[in-house]
Amino acid sequence: MTDKYNVIFILGGPGAGKGTQCNKIVKEFGFVHLSAGDLLRAERNEPDSEFGEEIAQHIKNGSIVPVAITCSLLKREMKRSKENDDKDFFLIDGFPRNNDNLDGWNSEMSGLVNLKSVLVFDCPKKVCVDRCLERGKTSGRTDDNKTSLEKRIQTFTDSTMPVIEYYRRENLVNEVSAERPEDEVFEDVKRIIQKIQSENNS
């Protein structure tokens, strides 16, 4: 039994269904879901957080929060889950988003984790936008609007796709077509995760 955290990165454009599929994985397999975005939003709302104001600015501008902040929040949560619930399989959703994230992760976390896979939800831009605008009616998220979405999709194309290509060269990418109904998508996800688990246990 290794002391390292087992990690699966979950990547895809805004509205590709990352959160929905992560919830299904958690239910089915008992992994811990860590959304980089949710952790940052929660930290932003902490009254005495040293990072709160900086995070708020980045979220508002649709820009990417410095990697050291995101890594320290992820590390804190993984440590907590391991100590309190003895969990060692983590889904990290919406990270790494650019080469700076990737470099920061590799330098700060590579000794602490086994990266098992990068699960990429591939979804056409129009479907992503429609889903986010629909979600925005009830989500209360300030970034589920057309202007922010255009920026976020552009950021994904310019910044996150090169990260996915990097992991593709490492043979770590599993791609799932995400515009289908969520249960169909999950059937593919399930097969991928069962394969990762059986390799992990062998």
Characterize the structure shown.
With 202 residues, this protein is α/β, with parallel strands linked by helices. It has one domain (5-193): P-loop containing nucleotide triphosphate hydrolases (Rossmann fold, 3-Layer(aba) Sandwich). The chain is 59% helix and 16% strand. Strands 2-3-1-4-5 form a five-stranded parallel beta sheet, with helices on both faces. It is globular.
In short:
By secondary structure, the chain is an alpha/beta fold. The chain is built from eight helices and five strands, in the order βαβαααβαβααβα. Helix 1 (18-29) packs across helix 8 (182-201), helix 4 packs across helix 5 (99-109) and helix 6 packs across helix 7 (146-169).
Count of beta strands: 5
Query: What do we call the CATH homologous superfamily?
Result: P-loop containing nucleotide triphosphate hydrolases
Briefly, what CATH class? Alpha Beta
* Adjacency order of strands in the biggest sheet: 2-3-1-4-5
Helical residue percent band: 55-70%
Order of helices and strands: EHEHHHEHEHHEH
